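Morning F.,

Quick status update on the modeling queue. The single chain you submitted on Monday has been processed. Sequence for confirmation:
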Amino acid sequence: MMANRELSADRRYMHRIEPESLAGKNLSPVEKLLETRLAAANLQIEAIRKNRDELVEENAALKKQVEQFGYDSLTGLPNKKQFLEKLQGMLTGLRPGDELVLFYFDIDKFKQVNDGHGHDEGDRLLSELGAVIQQLQTKFYRGSLGHKNPLFHTGEGGRRQDDLSIVGRQYGDEFVAAVKNFPNPHEAAQKIRNSVRRHRFRKIPGFRLTVSVGGVITRTYVPAEDLIKAADAKLYEAKGAGRNTVVICNY
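Structure tokens below.
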């Protein structure tokens, strides 16, 4: 009885979906039903594949558009080019008495995540970390990492956030942050490390997220590329010192 109802229902669209495999075949009603359902399923699969391909293309186009505006599509942070431009502006604007520290940091043993859990999991982790870094930028600007930023006591508190602190993504799991006139650069670097360590990232079995931080302090103009290279070198010193640590020096 049930089979008869199914046959009656399917006959309504059997005429709309007539697979080539039915042509010239002497099939029973049940066989025709099965062939028709198979053809309908194949059409649905093809439509899903087409939609998937279109979504992939749209996503790629959107990422390209985001990056053209100077932002990293995965984390939402300024990309390498935009960070370089902003850092150059901060360095050019240094005045007597100013101090700028550039931090270069990355995730310790990040390769374990990509190799052991896949690149999608690695991307999710980087996206989460990007949000943490954006919060740190605001904290740097407000001077709320344990000290009051002296700019708020010298009539300069109305300056834009990017005038005083900037963050960005360089490559892969490598990030940068530049802070101007923060009272204690060494403590600021430790706060970066601790903020990342204490954040409740989505758990990855067998992996504990920590970062190593390298930093360089300058009180005079330095080409932005040179300062980034110097901070990167300090990051590798921090890695060599056992990871999950900080190394800072004057330029």
